[in-house]
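pls design
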């Protein structure tokens, strides 16, 4: 019986157990995946005892991603750049950490827009928090051209440039609409548009109809930003796919099977988020 879990505080709303539970059943693996509430003051001990407690690893969510980065071994440069861990795996009794958020974003983009190619694309990213860092890093690793970053707090965009290099171009939050004319991919990484949060108020009229619009928010499945984009004729990428794709590598590390993100899995999680979905 191979055990893994997701840790966070709070953790009740995590959909990861649905995703990993689906794959455990699909691939007929004798394993379990549970939610584990871990308070910040319990985190060090939880990670220290992870292997002894019989876990092959765990997913890490808010607010622990940066703290876990400092508690485990890091074996890849992507995670070092991002400075946060969302997936822990045990090897020879030792806990290693990695970050799959960036590849979750790019895999979802490539699966959602058939034939899409990232190299050379001019991108605008809204937001400069943790999710933005992972996504901007992944876009740079995949050879996107310049990445304009608009954030309410300008300083954080400048910190992103210092961290990830000169292809990151900070712009003012109020200048975003004007700069859309230059961009081929627009990504929202802020929490705006999420259920019970304010709507992202951005005039898309300067955006080319060939551009792709992507949102990492997945409650609702189709955010107001994506609705406007679809209505004017842009191709869109919904945020739920990123959640599904970021889960792939953890499952492979713990259970030894590279799982597939199927339309059936998408529908199961989508129905959990929105009971009225299809
Ligand atoms: P995450 O890990 O999800 O990226 P985060 O690091 O807290 O979370 O970042 C949240 C992002 O949403 C930030 O870019 C934040 O902007 P600030 O850096 O100015 O705080 C953005 N955000 C949240 N609420 C916002 C609002 N009402 N208007 C504009 N941006 C907002």
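designed seq:
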């Amino acid at each position: 019986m191979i055990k893994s879990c997701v840790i966070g505080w709070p953790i009740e709303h995590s959909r990861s157990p649905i995703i990993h539970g689906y794959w455990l059943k699909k691939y007929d693996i004798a394993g379990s995946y549970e939610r584990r509430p871990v308070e910040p003051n319990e985190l060090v001990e939880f990670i220290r005892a992870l292997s002894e407690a019989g876990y092959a690893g765990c997913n890490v969510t808010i607010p622990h991603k940066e703290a876990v980065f400092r508690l485990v071994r890091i074996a890849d440069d992507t995670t070092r750049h991002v400075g946060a861990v969302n997936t822990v795996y045990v090897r020879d009794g030792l806990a290693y950490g990695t970050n799959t958020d960036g590849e979750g974003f790019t895999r979802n983009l490539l699966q959602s827009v058939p034939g899409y190619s990232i190299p050379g694309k001019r991108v605008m990213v809204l937001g400069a928090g943790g999710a933005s860092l992972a996504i901007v890093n992944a876009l740079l690793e995949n050879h996107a051209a310049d990445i304009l970053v608009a954030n309410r707090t300008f300083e954080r965009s400048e910190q992103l440039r210092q961290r990830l290099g000169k292809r990151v171009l900070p712009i003012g939050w109020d200048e975003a609409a004007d700069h859309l004319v230059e961009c081929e991919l627009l990504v929202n990484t802020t929490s705006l548009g999420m259920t019970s949060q304010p709507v992202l108020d951005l005039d898309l009229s300067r955006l080319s109809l060939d551009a792709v619009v992507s949102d990492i928010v997945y409650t609702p499945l189709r955010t107001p930003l994506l609705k406007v984009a679809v209505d004017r004729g842009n191709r869109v990428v919904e945020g739920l796919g990123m959640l599904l794709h970021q889960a792939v590598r953890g499952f492979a590390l713990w259970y030894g099977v590279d799982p597939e993100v199927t339309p059936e899995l998408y529908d199961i999680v989508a129905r959990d988020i929105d009971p009225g979905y299809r």
